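Regression test attached.
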Amino acid sequence: MTSSENVQNTHDGHTLTSGRLRQLHEAVLDIVAVMNRPQRDAFMVRTAGIALDRALFPLLVLVGKFGPIGVVELADRNGRDHTTVSRQVGRLVELGLVERQVNEHDRRIREVILTDRGRAMTDRIDEARESLMRAALGDWSDEELGQLATFMRRYADAILGIPDHHNAGDQQNRQFTR
Amino acid sequence: MTSSENVQNTHDGHTLTSGRLRQLHEAVLDIVAVMNRPQRDAFMVRTAGIALDRALFPLLVLVGKFGPIGVVELADRNGRDHTTVSRQVGRLVELGLVERQVNEHDRRIREVILTDRGRAMTDRIDEARESLMRAALGDWSDEELGQLATFMRRYADAILGIPDHHNAGDQQNRQFTR
DNA sequence: GGAAAATATGTGCGTTTTACACGTAAAAAG
DNA sequence: CTTTTTACGTGTAAAACGCACATATTTTCC
């Protein structure tokens, strides 16, 4: 049952070697590692010139990117329980960086949106990130960048499409805490 | 200073539009979101048939992928302080999933490696992940998959290359806690 | 139309996770 | 060979987190 030569036919006749998938997974792990580096956030926040709790930074960025956005969706994108995110949003409100507003079509949803101050901050963060990305990707050709972006988008959509699923709390909702 | 038409020349004459970079960043955010979903880990762990604390799972996978690996490097890949990871490794040792061994050439480093039991577990996790990936990427052609993997690897290397850097704690080592 | 189920959000509260301060040991730099 | 840097670990206290539970709104279905 070693997987070194494991090959499996897919429904439409293509084959995916384990090796290729592992290679892909390894690259993704590296990317996630970089994105999860706290120093990375720290640099951006410092550039933006504002002190912000570690846990709040990714939320602010997500609100900027995907807002107006509900707490549950925000929690999903952030990989945290919605109760945790709810509290963190509360802190962002206190800091004057975001606001809540009831969704027009579904009054259960209290959308989170950036305030002017929050927008100013994410703008500076975007600039900092863009600067870093330019430095990292400066030697890529325009065509290559286009292909990269296309593949990334397509891959993201593919894995986003995996049924939320498998996991979907069954037996108990409890997490598997030891 | 709006960025809608912001274009900047790079050292070798190419241009990177902000739009393209933003598009790329958004895709990366989606990917990271999926990877960070706790339910995802939960599913894998359940598949592997063993209860494992949430925080321990990513470490086990990293040790399997990159081990033997030192605590500091593990901490970097995991985006946590090395003291945190040190303790978590201790727990993995207690669970009999990993072992520590002093590096032969640098006795400061206590490499972390999988035990047979740990390897058996990561093998099952790998199978579960592979199954998910096949489901998600089953309709990609072999050529496309190759390109995807290549681009991912190249992008990972590019951002891994960003000097650890900018951030590098200066004034104080203290994190920017509020 | 209305009961039942599903979804979105939020608070109480105990647990888990995390990082800073500090110390030791080994290697690298000078 | 002294100084600096790097790797690792423990004490301690705070931050982050999630489950149980409750409310409000929408959706489902008979």
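Expected vs. actual: identical. Helices of chain A lie at 18-36, 38-48, 56-66, 71-78, 82-94, 116-137, 142-160.
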